[in-house]
Amino acid sequence: MAWFARMALLALLTLSAPLRAEVGPEALSALRGLEPLRGEAVDPATLDGRAVIVTFFASWCPPCHDEFRHLKRVAETHGDKIAIVAINVFENRSNPQTQARLRRFLDEHTPPFAVLAGGREIRRVYDGLDRIPSLFVFAPDGRLAWHFRHARGAERTHVTEADLAKVLADLR
Q1: Residue 19: per-residue pLDDT
Q2: All domains in the chain, ordered by first residue
Q3: Rounded to whole angstroms, what are the CA distances from 25 to 31, 138, 143?
Q4: Contact 149, 134 (CB under 8 A)
Q5: Its pTM surpasses 0.85
Q6: Residues 100-125: what's their mean pLDDT?
Q7: Smallest Cα–Cα separation from 41: which of 53, 30, 26, 50?
Q8: Contact at 8 Å (CB) between 116 and 84?
């Protein structure tokens, strides 16, 4: 029994572990060249001097739907003082069914921010990203200020508007 308890604790710590590697300003540069799915392509030079929220999502992910609702309100509240970029991962976008589901997701949420197509390379830059939703907040100087990674079985499944309001207020 003690072995099982130790293994369960180890699994819990692993799932909610901090970033394994440094995610720095180069992570914002990696947004250059990602294909826009909604909105325009992102030029990292236009992000200078603003807080930047980068979130990773998939259209099949229930917590991602909730997070998008919060992100939309944050975008409407903060306007061009911040930038939000959503990156679609873990989906086969060449599949017609996936394309239709993604289109429904974007039509439902009407994000007022850029939505880009991502793959293995952008996930590698963002600490080998392997869970969604995952969200990163960068300070206006480009340093990583805060991050959230959904952990399997966790009570907390996504970032809320209140979470982001506090993080953004701390950056002022």
Answers
A1: 54
A2: 2-170 (3.40.30.10)
A3: 11, 8, 6
A4: yes
A5: yes
A6: 97
A7: 30
A8: no
